[in-house]
Design goal:
Heterodimer of FNTA and PGGT1B. PGGT1B mediates interaction with substrate peptides. The chain is mainly α. Helices cover 44% and strands 1% of the residues.
Length: 351
């Protein structure tokens, strides 16, 4: 499926049409609030990842300074904690601890009770643990109910010999995404014993591709998503500039800058996609070269993917809002963190 035509660009910043820069903030807030309360049937297949959907929704509202619109914050916090897989009495499941994505495995919702039921394959998922911790922080929780021993033990068990991580104890894909999740979890809990950093760094180094970008693993195609995950993980570990040579860093920067056409795309010869305004944009911020991008073109592309009627952002112009809100939350992240003064001053339309 190919993207629709890119939006027409102004000849210069001075010729930018103000209407093209209208940001429908209140529409987006209402969209998030609706999806926080009830999801359309199209999301049924994502029921096992409800923690992730909650994170995208809450982070979007937070970036829009609208968390005050969320009612029953404590109930949401309790719901998140109800998905924590904690050690049982004999700690025989210590390597399975973390957060599950939902109660779809049969575990009943009961935030007041402990994990006293032995349900097969009831284990934490590294991405759900990442999303759960961030959601709790967004909601202002003090993380006092987090079982740190269980999470760190479960995380350590997920790392495999090449340095990457699998998502669950039972197996699954292992790639750069989960190294990033692991680094975030260790950073949040301030405990790096949950991962072998040297092994993870080695995996990242060997995933550097011939063209300067970073792939999901060694020998794989450079891609915007894993490039961000690798750079962000190294930044959290405090060793970005020690891991790559100056020449490698310069090639990496060039690869990222070259991903902009109007908005950003994740691979060469692919259409622009709103989510890469975050994945590539955030990478450029971490590399301290975001100013080398054309901010005006990127903003116009993102504004063109808004859904004025119902709120939300789409993957491409004239499409429906993206599944799991990834495009919307990523776009909002970039807009709210990197908007120019003129956008803050007068171009964000509150309606």
């Amino acid at each position: 499926m190919m993207a629709t035509d890119a939006p027409t660009l102004p000849a210069s910043d001075n010729e930018t049409n103000e209407a093209d820069e209208t940001f429908f903030r209140l529409k987006h807030i209402k969209f998030f609030l609706r999806n926080l309360d009830i999801l359309p049937t199209v999301y049924t297949s994502a029921d096992t990842s409800r923690i992730t959907m909650a994170f995208f929704t809450l982070s979007g509202l937070d970036l829009l300074n609208s968390l005050s619109s969320v009612e029953h914050k404590q109930q949401i916090i309790n719901w998140i904690y109800s998905h924590q897989v904690v050690p049982n009495e004999d700690e025989s499941n210590l390597n399975e601890c973390g957060f599950r994505g939902s109660s779809s495995n049969g575990n009943p919702f009961c935030p007041e009770k402990g994990n006293d039921q032995n349900i097969p394959f009831d284990s934490g998922h590294i991405a759900m643990t990442y999303c759960a911790l961030l959601s709790l922080i967004i909601l202002g929780d003090d993380l006092s109910r987090i079982n740190r021993k269980g999470i760190i033990s479960g995380l350590k068990h997920l790392q495999i010999k090449d340095g990457s991580f699998r998502p669950v104890p039972e197996g699954g894909e292992n790639d750069m995404r989960f190294i990033y999740c692991a680094a975030c979890i260790c950073h949040i809990l301030d405990d790096w014993s949950g991962m072998d950093r040297d092994l993870a760094i080695s995996y990242i180094k060997t995933s550097l591709s011939y063209d300067g970008g970073i792939g999901q693993g060694p020998g794989l195609e450079s891609h915007g998503g894993p490039t961000f995950c690798a750079v962000a993980a190294l930044s959290l570990m405090g060793c970005l500039h020690e891991t790559f040579t100056l020449h490698q860093l310069e090639r990496l920067k060039r690869w990222c800058v070259m991903r902009q056409q109007v908005g950003f795309h994740g691979r060469p010869n692919k259409p622009d996609d709103t989510c890469y305004s975050y994945w590539i944009g955030a990478t450029l911020k971490l590399l301290n070269i975001f100013e080398l991008t054309n901010f005006t073109q990127n903003r116009l592309y993102m504004m063109d993917t808004q859904k004025e009627a119902i709120g939300g952002f789409a993957k491409w112009p004239n499409q429906s809002p993206g599944k799991l809100f990834s495009q919307m939350s990523s776009t909002l992240h970039l807009i709210m963190l990197n908007v120019r003064e003129k956008v803050v001053a007068g171009y964000i339309e509150h309606r």
